[in-house]
Amino acid sequence: MTHDLTPKYTVPGIEREAAGRLIGVLRLRLHALNDLHLTLKHVHWNVVGPHFIAVHEMIDPQVDQVRDMADDVAERIAALGGVAQGTPGALVAERKWDDYSIGRADAIAHLGALDVVYTGVVEGMRAAVEEAGKIDPATEDLLIGQLRDLEQFQWFVRAHLESAGGALATGSATSETEAAARGAEVA
Fold first, then answer.
1. Element (H, E) at 48
2. Angle separating helix axes 137-159 and 107-133, nearest 10 degrees
3. Does domain 16-186 have CATH number 1.20.1260.10?
4. Which tens digit of pLDDT belongs to each residue from 131-182?
5. How far does CA 76 lie from the centroid of its chain?
6. CA-to-CA distance for 169 and 185, rounded, in angstroms?
7. Would you tell me the crossing angle of helices 107-133 and 52-79 to the nearest 10 degrees?
8. Is 22 exposed, middle or buried (0-12, 13-18, 19+ CB in 10 A)?
9. Residues 15-58: tens digit of each pLDDT
């Protein structure tokens, strides 16, 4: 979908065209964060096995924080003069990734898949930080704080997948299903 995201007004000190570029960057981050919090809740509901309670309880605080991140991004879009598209239709139409593909599964399998999901979200956030840094330090700062939290969440996930020697069970997996299968082998 192509939209003219140039707002009619924006915050002082940012040109309208630059604000439009920021809105475009933030819009994809909003979709990624909304998708992530729904994916995390899906995992919370569908995790099974001996590590169930540890993963079940680890996920809910991440859900809450990711929802707060989405809210902050949506409010920044609005402050810049844009429209925060938070509907499922907009998310599905504009996202650049596939839907989470793991259903009811062992905790370690889900964590393997989540590691791949977090990698995609973190890489997208890093690119957004870089782009925002060219235009607006306030937006860049918001995204840097979120990036730090997302990296910590991925670390929590990876702690369940890491051997004492520092090797990740899902190491070179490039898809959720491949990572889930490798994680399931460890469990």
1. strand 47-48
2. 160
3. yes
4. 999 999 999 999 999 999 999 999 999 999 998 888 888 878 888 998 888 8
5. 17
6. 9
7. 20
8. buried
9. 999 999 999 999 999 999 999 999 999 999 999 999 999 999 99
